[in-house]
Write a structure and sequence with these properties.
286 residues; Translation Initiation Factor IF3; 7 strands; 31% strand; elongated
Length: 286
C-alpha cells in the first residue's frame, strides 16, 4: 500500500502592525506658550470689551429715562423770577473803651512811682464806686525812664526819672462814659484818649436786617402774585451780602476830656451805625 504523506499544516502568518498615533508635536516649546498667551490675551480683551458694552448700554438707558422724565416740561428758566430787597437795622454801641494814663517825674524812681501810684489808685477807687469791675480794667503799659537835661559845661545831665502807667477801661454802661472821663480829669490823669465804641453782639443786628429784607420780599411776592396772577412754587436760589464796611462810630468830645481837671462832665456821643443786608431770592413760578 502506498504510504500517505502527511500534509504539513502551514499556519497563517499574522502580521501585527503597530498602530501609530499621530500627535501634533510642537516644533518648539516656546511656540506652544506663545499660542496659549495669545488665547488668554484675546479672552481678556473680549471681557473688557463686554464690560464697556454693558456700561455704554446702561448710560444710554439712563439718558433715555431722564429724557422721558422731562417730556412735556418747559425749561425752568422760563418760569423764574428774582426778587431783591435791602434790609436795614440800626446799631447803637453797648460798650465803650477808653485809655487812661498818668505820667509823673521826680528826682528818684521811688518818688515818681509813689506819685504815679497815688493817682492811679485814686482813679481805680473811683471806677469801682461807679460799679466798674476789676475785670473791665486792664493795665497795658508801665514804663520807668530816666530824664536828662543838657548843660553847656557838662553836656547831658541826669535830671530825674519819669514813670508812666496806662490802663484800658471798658465801660459796659455807655451812659457812664462821660462820668468816667470826668473822673479821670479830677484824679489828675494826664493822658486820656483812644475812645472806642464796641458792639458785643453784632450778629444780632445782622439778623434784624435780614428779617427786614425778608419781610420786604414777602410783601413783593404778595403784590406780584395778586397783580400778575402767578403762583410762587419754590425757592430756586438764595443769596445775601452785607455792604457795610463797619467804619468807626461818630465821636464828639468836649475840650474837658483832654484836660487835667475842671469837674465838668465831657459831652460824649456814641453815634449810630446802619447795618445793610441785601437779599436776592429766585423763585419758581407757574
Amino acid at each position: 500500500m502506498p504510504v500517505k504523506k502527511k500534509k504539513k499544516i502551514v499556519e497563517p502568518k499574522i502580521e501585527l502592525k503597530k498602530i501609530e498615533t499621530k500627535t501634533n508635536n510642537c516644533t518648539c516649546f516656546k511656540d506652544c506658550n506663545m499660542s496659549d498667551f495669545g488665547k488668554k490675551l484675546m479672552m481678556t480683551f473680549l471681557g473688557i470689551l463686554l464690560v464697556y458694552i454693558i456700561v455704554f448700554i446702561g448710560v444710554l438707558i439712563r439718558n433715555q429715562i431722564k429724557t422721558y422724565n422731562y417730556i412735556g416740561m418747559n425749561d425752568k428758566s422760563e418760569r423764574m423770577i428774582t426778587i431783591t430787597a435791602e434790609g436795614i437795622s440800626i446799631i447803637k454801641p453797648d460798650v465803650a473803651k477808653v485809655t487812661l494814663g498818668v505820667t509823673k517825674e521826680a528826682d528818684t524812681v521811688e518818688e515818681a512811682q509813689l506819685e504815679n501810684t497815688e493817682i492811679m489808685n485814686s482813679l481805680l477807687v473811683g471806677l469801682k464806686e461807679m460799679e466798674i469791675s476789676d475785670s473791665d480794667i486792664q493795665t497795658n503799659n508801665y514804663n520807668v525812664n530816666p530824664v536828662y537835661d543838657y548843660d553847656e559845661e557838662e553836656g547831658r545831665v541826669l535830671d530825674g526819672y519819669q514813670v508812666f502807667q496806662q490802663v484800658i477801661v471798658k465801660v459796659k454802661d455807655t451812659t457812664k462814659t462821660s462820668e468816667v472821663l470826668a473822673l479821670a480829669g479830677e484824679m489828675g490823669i494826664t493822658n486820656i484818649g483812644n475812645l472806642e465804641w464796641i458792639v458785643d453782639d453784632r450778629d444780632h443786628y445782622t439778623d434784624l436786617a435780614r428779617k427786614d429784607a425778608l419781610d420786604k420780599v414777602k410783601n413783593q411776592v404778595e403784590t406780584l402774585s395778586s397783580s400778575l396772577g402767578v403762583n410762587f412754587v419754590d425757592i430756586i436760589s438764595y443769596n445775601e451780602y452785607n455792604s457795610n464796611n463797619y467804619t468807626s462810630y461818630d465821636k464828639v468830645y468836649s475840650s474837658e476830656a483832654y484836660g487835667l481837671g475842671g469837674g465838668s462832665v465831657p459831652s460824649i456821643s456814641e453815634g449810630e451805625e446802619e447795618v445793610n443786608l441785601n437779599v436776592n431770592i429766585t423763585f419758581e413760578i407757574k
